[in-house]
């Protein structure tokens, strides 16, 4: 049984190397599902493709990697505060009329997300501890 499982995993790994992408997974309905997000991403930056992507690239990637954008999840106000901080301390220029569009983009694709239940239990809410004897 272990050898069958091992050979299956090796075959899946080999197929993913051949195609360059992992094989599709089957969902409950039998239809293929992807591990990746449903949002199309720019292959060069990894950012979500949108009409405002060019603005974000122009104003953001001159100073830092897009990884800094992708790893954060802020509200519109949170992104605005980050922009103000960069303007105060990092010499970011005034975004002018582009600022609302940049904020719209950042909030839409990199705003806080309500993650669905991932199978883990919520943290215990009690502070009562039982005495260990």
Automatic annotation (TrEMBL):
Q: Name one GO molecular function term.
A: electron transfer activity
Domain of life from the UniProt record: Bacteria
Gene3D superfamilies per record: Cytochrome c-like domain (1.10.760.10)
Query: What is this protein called in UniProt?
Result: Sulfite dehydrogenase (Cytochrome) subunit SorB
């Amino acid at each position: 049984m272990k050898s069958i499982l091992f050979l299956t995993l090796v075959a899946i790994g080999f197929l993913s190397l051949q195609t360059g992408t992992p094989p599709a997974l089957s969902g409950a309905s039998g239809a293929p599902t992807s591990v990746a997000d449903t949002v199309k991403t720019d292959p060069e930056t990894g950012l979500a493709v949108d009409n405002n992507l060019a603005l974000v690239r122009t104003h953001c990637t001159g100073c830092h990697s897009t990884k800094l954008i992708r790893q954060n999840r802020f509200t519109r106000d949170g992104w605005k505060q980050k922009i103000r901080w960069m303007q105060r301390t990092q010499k970011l220029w005034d975004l002018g009329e582009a600022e609302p569009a940049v904020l719209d983009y950042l909030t839409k694709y990199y705003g806080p997300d309500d993650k669905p239940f991932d199978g883990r239990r919520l943290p215990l809410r009690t502070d009562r501890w039982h005495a260990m004897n």
